[in-house]
Specification:
Number of helices: 4
Number of strands: 5
Oligomer: single chain
Shape: globular
Strand content: 25-35%
Low-confidence stretches: none
Amino acid sequence: MPLHIQERNIRDIVIMDLYGNLDFNTAPELKVKLDSLIKFGHQKIIINLARVDFIDSTGVGSLMYALKLLDTTMGDIKIIGLSPQNQNVFSVLELDRVFSILNSETQAISSFLEDDATLH
């Protein structure tokens, strides 16, 4: 199943809604998209995985790649919408210690706004 990415912005936050599978075949597309966003100065990214049916290690790798790039700019990725199956992937790989995994888009946006408030 191909990966579809819908992108939208709220303030300076980019929200990416992913649809399909995030795997060996589709992860490069996400990696290129994330790389482009970060190179254009976006530092706050929410990735909605609610409609992602399957994630493999290559898909996780594309998220890790982007997080590493953002680390140099003090940016962050927030993950929302994990299904129980995909939550299990993140837990087994202990990625719930690496990524901010939140329950909703509203919660993720608020988290970024709170981060901004503590920096000022």
